[in-house]
Write a structure and sequence with these properties.
single chain, two-stranded antiparallel ribbon, 2 strands
């Protein structure tokens, strides 16, 4: 009974960590989405929608490339891709159409199906994650001094101006202006998030079976600290130690 209770609390702690991360990402995604929408509408009002698409087309292409890479990552079958459609029929200037591949039913715990189900979330929000990741990769590997700056960020360490840096700035703004998620992008994301919650719970349960010390120590502090929640981990540790110290007296 004590083991089951400890297992429950460990799984709950893992889900709480997921909740903190999810809320943070939701707020960040909302800000990026809102900012992109405002920039897009204001600039389009000045130069015209078609001119906006032509001027910042690479941002649309990065948006669709993000969906495509996420679909590949989650083993989806790519049915149709259009990185840039200047005419914008039906209000869409690009699209990626994909569907889950048939997964074998005999695989352990239906892992491929669970992975594809989680893909509904990550494929939908891919431009908020993969787009910035692509820009960060370009900054790190292509821009002279970019690698040193990312290892030790400082105002004086900013890379000097050059055509590499100029291209990166242009792609940065083009990506920001086109990071807004459409209703088609968001379709099915909550369904995918539900499976992410299920996957985290399963991983927590299996991890506790493999490493029983996790039931005593809880979710390792480094996972909390990696998302800026080290103090939450410290609070959980104090609470856990308090419970452990009071348990013997209660049993007496």
């Amino acid at each position: 009974m004590h083991f089951n209770k400890a297992l429950f609390y460990f799984t709950l702690e893992a889900l709480i960590l997921l909740a903190f991360i999810s809320v943070g990402l939701f707020v960040l995604g909302f800000i990026l989405n809102w900012t992109s929408s405002k920039f897009r509408s204001n600039i389009s009002a000045v130069i015209g929608p078609k001119a906006f698409v032509i001027l910042f087309g690479p941002g649309i292409m990065i948006h669709e490339l993000s969906h495509l890479l996420a679909a590949w990552l989650f083993f989806y079958k790519i049915e149709d891709v259009r990185f840039l459609d200047i005419s914008g029929k039906n209000g869409s200037h690009g699209h990626v159409t994909a569907s889950p591949r048939p997964a074998p039913n005999f695989w352990l715990l239906y892992i491929p199906k669970l992975w594809q189900a989680m893909g509904n979330l990550f494929i939908g929000i891919a431009p908020l994650v993969i787009g910035p990741a692509l820009l960060l990769t370009y900054f790190y590997f292509v821009i002279p001094g970019g690698r040193a700056f990312l290892h030790d960020p400082s105002f004086h360490g900013l890379p000097s101006w050059g055509w590499h840096f100029g291209i990166w700035l242009y792609l940065l703004f083009a990506t920001i202006f086109n990071v807004e998620l459409s209703s088609a992008d968001l379709k099915g994301t909550w369904h995918g998030f539900a499976f992410v919650v299920l996957a985290v719970a399963l991983v927590a349960l299996v991890s506790a079976q493999v490493k029983p010390q996790l039931l005593t120590n809880g979710v390792p502090r480094r996972y909390w600290a990696s998302v800026g929640l080290g103090k939450v981990a410290d609070f959980n540790a104090k609470l856990r130690n308090t419970k452990n110290s009071t348990t013997p007296s209660q049993q007496q």
